User: Which sequence fits this backbone?
C-alpha cells in the first residue's frame, strides 16, 4: 500500500526506496542517493526518470527522501536512509525482472560515482568505510559493471592499507575465485584481484603457494597486458616482495631493479609505485650486504614521500621504518632509535596498534632498545608485539617468527635462558616446518637457540 501511494504522490521517493533495497541495511548517505543519474537506459522504469529530474533540485531531492521515511519504508538517519532487511526483500520481490536489473544497475552506478578516492590516504578512509557495506551487498563478483569491479578491487586495497588484513584477504580471495570461473584467468579484473590477494598473502602466508600465485599472475599480466602496463608492473613488484620474504634476495633484487626502471620510465619519478619499488629494492640491497646503498636509496625515497604524500601517509611511515633499520645496520643506533620512536608514535596515531606497519616499527624499536642496553624495555615491547602479531598474523608467519626471535634474544640478555631456549625451539620448529631449513627465519632461530644452549651450558 505504501509503495502504491508513493508511486502516485512522489515517484522519485519510490525510486529512492527501491535503490536502497539493493544496498546494505546500513545507513545510506543522502549524498550518494541524490547524485545526478549516471545511467542512460531508455527502458528504465519511469520512477527512475522522475528521480533524475528530482535530484537536479536539492530541495526536491530531500523532500523525496523525507517522504520515504514518512511512508514507513525507511528510517531517516544522519541525513540519509536506512531500510530494514525485510522491507528491502519485499521491495525487491515486487519488481519485475527487468526493473530489478535497472535498479541494481542504478545502485551500482551511484556507488561508483561515490568513489572515495585514494585508498592509501587515511583522509579517504572514512569515505571507504561508508560505502563498503553497500558495495559488498551489491556482490561485485557477479556484477556486469566493469566500473563496479574496479571499485571492488580498490576496496580490497583500502582494507589492506587500513590494516584489516583478514577481511582484505577474504574479499580478494572471493573475487579472484569468482572472476576466475566467470571471466577467465586472463581477464584483467581477475588479474587485479590476484594482485590484491597476493599483497595480503605475502604478509599472512609467504609460502611456496603464494610464490606460485605471484609467478602465475606476473606471467599472465606479461602475456596479456604487456611489460609496461601498470598491472604488470604491480605484479612484478609483488612477486619480488614474495621472493624477498622467502629469502631469495638476489632474485628479488634483479626483479626490483627492472621494475623500478620501468616504473620510472612509465609513471615518472614521483609516482607512488616508483617509491614502493625503490623501497623494496633498498630492502634487497641491505639483505645482500649493500647497506650504504640501501641507506641512500631509502633516504631519497623518504624525502620524496614526505614531500608528495606527507609525514603520516602509510608509505612514508613504511619507508621511515626501513631507513631506521639501515641506520641500525650502519651502527647509528641512537639515530635509528629516534626515527623508529617517532615513526611508531605516528603509526599508532594514524594506523592503530595492530596495523602491520605499526607492529614492524615496534619490533625494530625493540631491537634498537636492546642494543642500547634498555633490555627490560625491549623485552616488554617485544612481548606486546609478539602477542599482537600472533593475533593479527598467526603463529606460522615469518614476521611473527622474527618478533619471537628478537624477544628470545632479549630474554638471553636478561639471563632467562630457559625461557629463551623454549621460545627459540618453538620458533625454529615452526620456521623449518613452514619455510624449510634455509629460510632466514629458520637460520635466525637456529642461531638464537644455539646462543640459549651455550648460555645454559655456561650457567651449568
Assistant:
Amino acid at each position: 500500500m505504501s509503495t502504491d501511494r508513493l508511486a502516485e504522490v512522489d515517484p522519485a521517493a519510490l525510486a529512492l526506496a527501491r535503490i536502497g533495497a539493493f544496498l546494505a541495511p546500513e545507513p545510506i548517505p543522502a549524498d550518494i542517493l541524490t547524485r545526478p543519474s549516471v545511467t542512460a537506459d531508455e527502458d528504465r522504469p519511469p520512477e527512475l526518470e522522475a528521480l533524475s529530474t528530482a535530484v537536479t533540485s536539492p530541495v526536491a531531492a530531500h523532500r523525496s527522501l523525507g517522504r520515504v521515511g514518512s511512508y514507513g519504508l525507511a528510517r531517516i538517519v544522519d541525513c540519509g536512509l536506512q531500510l530494514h532487511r525485510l522491507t528491502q526483500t519485499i521491495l525487491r520481490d515486487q519488481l519485475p525482472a527487468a526493473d530489478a536489473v535497472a535498479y541494481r544497475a542504478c545502485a551500482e552506478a551511484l556507488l561508483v560515482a561515490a568513489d572515495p578516492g585514494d585508498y592509501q590516504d587515511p583522509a579517504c578512509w572514512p569515505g571507504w568505510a561508508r560505502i563498503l557495506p553497500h558495495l559488498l551487498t551489491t556482490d561485485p563478483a557477479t556484477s556486469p559493471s566493469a566500473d563496479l569491479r574496479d571499485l571492488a578491487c580498490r576496496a580490497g586495497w583500502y582494507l589492506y592499507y587500513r590494516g584489516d588484513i583478514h577481511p582484505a584477504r577474504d574479499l580478494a580471495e572471493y573475487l579472484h575465485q569468482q572472476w576466475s570461473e566467470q571471466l577467465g584467468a586472463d581477464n584483467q579484473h581477475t588479474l587485479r584481484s590476484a594482485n590484491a590477494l597476493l599483497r595480503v598473502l605475502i604478509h599472512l602466508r609467504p609460502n611456496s603457494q603464494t610464490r606460485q600465485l605471484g609467478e602465475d599472475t606476473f606471467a599472465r599480466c606479461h602475456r596479456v597486458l604487456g611489460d609496461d602496463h601498470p598491472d604488470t608492473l604491480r605484479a612484478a613488484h609483488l612477486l619480488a616482495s614474495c621472493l624477498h620474504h622467502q629469502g631469495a634476495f638476489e632474485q628479488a633484487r634483479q626483479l626490483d631493479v627492472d621494475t623500478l626502471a620501468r616504473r620510472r620510465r612509465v609513471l615518472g619519478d614521483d609516482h607512488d609505485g616508483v617509491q614502493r619499488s625503490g623501497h623494496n629494492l633498498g630492502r634487497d640491497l641491505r639483505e645482500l650486504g649493500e647497506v650504504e646503498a640501501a641507506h641512500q636509496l631509502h633516504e631519497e625515497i623518504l624525502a620524496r614521500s614526505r614531500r608528495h604524500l606527507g609525514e603520516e601517509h602509510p608509505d612514508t611511515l613504511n619507508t621511515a621504518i626501513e631507513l631506521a633499520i639501515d641506520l641500525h645496520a650502519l651502527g647509528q643506533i641512537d639515530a635509528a632509535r629516534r626515527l623508529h620512536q617517532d615513526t611508531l608514535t605516528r603509526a599508532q596515531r594514524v594506523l592503530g596498534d595492530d596495523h602491520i606497519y605499526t607492529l614492524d616499527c615496534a619490533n625494530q624499536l625493540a631491537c634498537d632498545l636492546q642494543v642500547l642496553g634498555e633490555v627490560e624495555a625491549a623485552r616488554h615491547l617485544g612481548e606486546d608485539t609478539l602477542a599482537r602479531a600472533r593475533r593479527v598474523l598467526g603463529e606460522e608467519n615469518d614476521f611473527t617468527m622474527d618478533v619471537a626471535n628478537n624477544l628470545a634474544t632479549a630474554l638471553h640478555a636478561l639471563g632467562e635462558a630457559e625461557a629463551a631456549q623454549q621460545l627459540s625451539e618453538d620458533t625454529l620448529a615452526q620456521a623449518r616446518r613452514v619455510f624449510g631449513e634455509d629460510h632466514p627465519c629458520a637460520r635466525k632461530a637456529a642461531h638464537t637457540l644455539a646462543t640459549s644452549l651455550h648460555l645454559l651450558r655456561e650457567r651449568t
Remarks:
- The longest helix spans residues 440-459.
- The beta strands are 28-29, 75-77, 80-82.
- The chain is about 75% helix and 0% strand.
